[in-house]
Amino acid sequence: MATSKHLDPEPRQDVAGDGGNGPRARGTRTGAALVPIQEKVLAEIGHELGNFFHKLYYWSDFLQESPGRTSADATAVQMLERTIRNLEEFLKVSFEYFHPTQLACMRMGTAELVDAVLVQLRAQLNGTPVTVADGGDWRDGGVMVDPSRFSQALGVAVRHLVDRLGAESALAIAFRRASRDGHPGLEVDFQLSRPSEAPALLQTGAAGMAWAVAEKIFMLHGGELLESTIGPDDKSVTLFLPLDPS
To answer: I want to staple 105 with a disulfide (CB 3.0 to 4.6 A). Which of 74, 93, 144, 180 is the partner?
Structure first.
């Protein structure tokens, strides 16, 4: 698919909101990363819209062809209303992906950021134990983040894991110093062992777009958000934020 400059979700904007003096996404890495992610997201939007309109046509036709009011009609009305609500939510999150995002960044110590990650993680785990591994080499330094946007993206990543927690699942989190393209940074790695199968009702288009928005937010911070599979079953979600050199 050819990429149009008009589809770029971040056209010539002041990312940090400070006239260009704040931290930006690393130019060469972000420029290369936006194209495949953008095309992937566009393909996902087209696929999901096709699914939504198929459901809308199906339930509308069912009601039009029904000879009289039955319990099946009531179910069809509920399904039609639910499809419309899901479509509204999907479009809302999709618009957020394409809307220019302006960050209001501030410097946070890495220890403070790690504390915030753990607080948000435990708030969503509802008592589920988590193993924490500390590389010990990340404590000195800080990162430039927009607290509100970072919390939004982190919440999406954590929910992605929490939705897959089962009775036999185990969750571990590791903090370490790492680098991307020669840029040092803080890496947070979540590993979920023996995840449960995600219920079909949770596999919504809006959830997929929320993940795309979270990826975009991390890229605007100069970092990245990655999901991977470890071995036959285990899942990993990795966050990376570059260290502030000041």
So the answer is: 144
